[in-house]
Amino acid sequence: MEPDELPTPDAIRPPGGPAGSAAGGAAGPATGNPVAEAVAGGTGGRPGHGEPVLEIRGLVKHFPLTRGILFRKQVGAVKAVDGVSFDLHRGETLGIVGESGCGKSTVAKLLVGLERPTAGQIRYRGEDITKLSGRALKAVRRNIQMVFQDPYTSLNPRMTVGDIIGEPYDIHPEVAPKGDRRRRVQELLDVVGLNPEYLNRYPHQFSGGQRQRIGIARGLALRPEIIVADEPVSALDVSVQAQVVNLLERLQNTFDLSYVFIAHDLSVVRHISDRVAVMYLGRLAESGTDEQIYDHPTHPYTQALLSAVPVPDPEARESRTRILLTGDVPSPADPPSGCRFRTRCWKAQELCAEQVPPLEVPPRFATPDAGPAAHPSACHFAEERQVVPGE
Amino acid sequence: MPDPYAPKEAITHGDGGPAALAIGEAESLERAPGAGPGGAPTGKPRSLWSDAWHDLRRNPVFLLSALIILFLLVIAVWPQLIADGNPYRADLAKAQAGPEPGHPFGYDTQGRDVYTRVVYGARASITVGICATAGAALLGGLLGGFAGFFGGWWDTLLSRIADIFFGIPVILGGLVFLSVVTSSTVWPVVGFIVLLGWPQIARIARGAVVTAKQNDYVQAARALGAGNARTLLRHIAPNAVAPVIVVATIALGTYISLEATLSFLGAGLKPPTVSWGIDISAASTSIRNAPHMLLWPAGALSITVLAFIMLGDAVRDALATASPKPSTASATASPPGRPSPSSANPAPASPSPPRR
Q: Quick one: where's region Disordered (chain A) (predicted)?
């Protein structure tokens, strides 16, 4: 069964959504590593960027640090997310990369309403959803769903697959009439490539990749517009990673989904993303299209990250330079002044400690002929440096 | 398994059938060739509970303890099935006499048949054990569960209250509380054990709920818009109840020995009631002349307590292997506070169960 021929039942297809057209784009010749190969497959043939469905403005999440049992006193705050802004357009995939503890997962939780932001706005179709509660929030939640990292803890072991995927309909009974649910759940299983007869099985009877498919089916049940995927393939085998990433791409084309795809694996993010944002210590360091970020990085942190990506070609590997960062990531409870990255940056000067570099196109690249280097980069001394050997 | 080197559009279809799915002979090949997605649903769906039950049925420890407990339950309800005598009938001429035909365990100081009294004594012990456990599990489970789920002030308050009850020494508390009670029924003892037993279960329940609450499936339900009631009943309670059941089963055995200990000290059940603890107490003064008076009720008590503790162990093992990840079981691995199974094994002649 070819991906393009996949049944897309009307019950699940969003109105007016384009049917899967570019799903075969990831096909390529057989090589050793499916993920690396998938990356080489490029990102052509994506649907064009539509209007923004999600606008994030100045998102802040501080977790208070308290002391004392009876009389809690706030002694500080972990600044997990500290002023993050970006747009998500209809039908596109925004990749967010960054190392552990940089606030990626907190952003994901804020987007789906699992955490309340300390400040900032999350505008879904122009409406700020951070202030919503009760019924209005529940209605918005239908449109923003989440796929979790660990397929072993994200499915309730005491529920059957049918109950897990059907639970969204119990919570939002207006979406599907009672008699129709079983059929819908079976359709969802089919859409994610599982046997529809598996309805009565329990999660522990499935492999990691299959469980992640179940999690994706649950996320699709309410026909959301946006799926926030928090490291959806990090817990999977490399061979299974490619399958799940390809499934996500196919579903995006079928249902016209917008993804926020969070990962620490740069290759996977490049493969699936239209645009990429690099996060460091609660702030965005750089953002742009995947080509701009991967081939023309201008922020030193991005360059350091990219220089650590394994290169499969031994000769190219010889010619490249690793950028080794010194020191550890500073504590998010006490981040450095000015530029967050300055404590580990080889270019840091006094200016970096005094002024926070804004996330915008650096002035030196703000010329019409600057080419792909002209993208937002939060660095006072942004300059292009090719770190990944030419392709 | 799918070939990782295959072209991607083939891999897209499904990952390979895992071991659990390999039950079917005619597995796969019905969908994409070479992709091997899970095949026909030949295997029966098995929940974790049915998995645990499957394990239990094959565990000789469980079978033996279940058999003993079943037998004890039957004679607790119908003691006349195996003992046709009257536990109160005294024949002073036969005081402390040894076994004779028809009276295999001999006679006690007042000339009552020891066998009949041992059989009739099961009722008090089992009643106290089951009622106290049910009460403690209900109270502790609910309070601990709420503390774990809501956290914050509730948690602090309930945990401190539990600590206060934890701090009451069992024997001293029993002597003080129960000496003022004149009722000869089992209920004051049951009430006292519930009062002292619930904090232990509450701690376990709280820990299990806190563990379950952190699972991604709870977050997933929240992200879908599930309210507190649904989250608690559908997602947390089913995953947190296993450790509570295990600890409650083991606690049942220790509660029975606690009842015997209190009765031995004269603070538990009062004489018109037939109880192993009372009989052991009465026999302890003449252990040299008539050891049979002490050995039979003490033996019955030991076997009963041991059976419940073995049952709890077997249930814990079954739930641990059936549980998807060790966290469910690890909470049960160390029931804190109460005496460990070995020290709980009653030695009523020296009534000082180490506690804390």
A: 1-49
